[in-house]
Description:
The chain is an all-beta fold. The chain has a single domain (3-64), classed as Roll (SH3 type barrels), CATH 2.30.30. The chain has strands at 3-6, 17-22, 25-36, 41-45, 51-55, 60-64. The chain has a 6-stranded antiparallel sheet with strand order 1-6-2-3-4-5, with no helix packed on it. A hairpin with a 2-residue loop joins strand 2 (17-22) and strand 3. It is globular. The model has no long low-confidence stretch (mean pLDDT 95).
Amino acid sequence: xxxxxxxxxxxxxREDKIEARRQGVVHFxxxxxxxxxxxxxxxxxxxxxxxxxxxxxxxxxxxxxxx
Length: 67
């Protein structure tokens, strides 16, 4: 699936499908649950139910494009 890089949590909306990558390797994939633009972070939940806070300082964030 094609993705685009996201540079700020302000670009995300609830239910966006994302990947959090480090050096091109996917470390987490899921759907945006809650966005906190003032802190530039967001909560996401994986398909297995794992909930994680994602910080832009730690990962390169990529959003799946609709087809």
